[in-house]
């Protein structure tokens, strides 16, 4: 049974999750009843004018997953909260919450946020409804991850020292940093500069018409800059807060603070890459896309492989970080479980001999 002090974090996180679930379900029920505030009918994969939510007010039949399907997911999320509170301190309490966090973060698809938020700040017309909804999903995923962390079984404290990661983890980390630079930043920078690198003149004209220079610069620079955070998985500052961080200098970095964002982004990248490649191959099979078109715009097809490789390399790097930091905690726990060493047989024999000699000299 968890103590009252241990249960308090679980109650706080569960209360925050309940607020999120109730608000999300209330909004969906409002849409089902006919309201359309914050609802969008825009296709997030198409370059369209998002003003008015692409005619959201004229939508009569609400898609299933935007209405009753989302309400059903909300009920499942509520069950996860109940499990976390009812079985706090056990492993079974955290499992539904971890599943809920992964679902919310994957559905939010944070990779798009890396592109859309800088573009919106730079002045490109953006669908605030879609951005707001996916930011809310990210917040919900973080809340359920916090609930899972608080309601699970107690864990040994983090070790204070730095544990170097394996060499193969460092190599994969460098690949993870290089891929968005070579496979994303370089071609997009050339396209912003009106250089038709790996694409047709028609595709280049579309990019120039739909993408302003500030938005193009933001979309070009944000992914590789965000990719630099991967170095934290193989450097000391990924396990210990740097000295210049006030109040946290030298303290261990919580593993979940690194593992959850890296794992979610890796899963999103791999999912996006696999689905995109599947669609690409399907278009080739049906004849909708010709090999001549692929040859003319080979950079677009290469981008799909970049996303897939980026996700795989990030996943491998995250696994190496998890193994390295996990060994620290396991070793630290083993030391605490090891009983104090008692006197050996040789020590006992020497002590007995010394006592006998002392007694003989006394007599």
Automatic annotation (TrEMBL):
Name assigned to this protein: Uncharacterized protein
Record bears the keyword Zinc: no
Transmembrane helix listed as a keyword: yes
Biased composition (Basic and acidic residues): 354-363
Keywords: Membrane, Transmembrane, Transmembrane helix
Region (Disordered): 333-363
Transmembrane segments: 12-31, 65-85, 97-119, 131-150, 171-193, 213-235, 256-281, 301-324
């Amino acid at each position: 049974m968890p103590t009252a002090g241990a249960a308090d974090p679980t109650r706080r996180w569960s209360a925050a999750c309940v607020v999120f679930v109730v608000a999300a379900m209330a909004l969906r029920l409002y849409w089902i009843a006919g309201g359309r505030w914050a609802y969008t009918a825009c296709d997030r994969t198409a370059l369209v004018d998002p003003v008015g939510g692409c005619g959201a007010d004229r939508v009569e039949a609400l898609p299933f997953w935007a209405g009753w399907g989302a309400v059903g997911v909300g009920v499942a999320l509520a069950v996860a909260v109940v499990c976390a509170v009812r079985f706090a301190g056990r492993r079974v309490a955290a499992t539904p919450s971890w599943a809920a966090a992964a679902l919310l973060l994957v559905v939010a698809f944070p990779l798009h946020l890396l592109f859309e938020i800088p573009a919106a700040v730079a002045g490109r017309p953006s669908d605030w409804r879609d951005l707001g909804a996916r930011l809310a999903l990210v917040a919900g995923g973080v809340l359920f991850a916090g609930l899972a962390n608080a309601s699970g079984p107690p864990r040994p404290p983090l070790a204070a020292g730095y544990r170097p990661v394996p060499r193969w983890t460092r190599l994969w980390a460098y690949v993870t940093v290089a891929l968005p630079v070579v496979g994303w930043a370089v071609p997009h920078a050339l396209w912003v500069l009106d250089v038709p690198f790996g694409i047709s003149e028609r595709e280049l004209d579309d990019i120039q018409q739909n993408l302003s220079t500030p938005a193009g610069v933001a979309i070009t620079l944000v992914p590789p800059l965000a990719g630099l955070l991967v170095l934290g998985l193989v450097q000391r500052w990924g396990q210990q807060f740097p000295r210049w961080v006030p109040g946290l200098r030298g303290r261990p970095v919580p593993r979940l603070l690194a593992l959850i964002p890296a794992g979610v982004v890796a899963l999103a990248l791999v999912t996006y890459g696999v689905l995109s490649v599947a669609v690409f191959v399907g278009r080739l099979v049906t004849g909708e896309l010709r090999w001549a078109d692929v040859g003319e715009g080979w950079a677009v097809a290469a981008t799909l492989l970049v996303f897939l490789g980026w996700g795989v390399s990030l996943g491998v790097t995250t696994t190496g970080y998890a193994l390295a930091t996990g060994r620290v905690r396991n070793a630290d726990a083993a030391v605490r479980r090891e009983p104090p060493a008692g006197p050996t047989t040789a020590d006992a024999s020497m002590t007995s001999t010394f006592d006998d000699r002392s007694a003989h000299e006394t007599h």
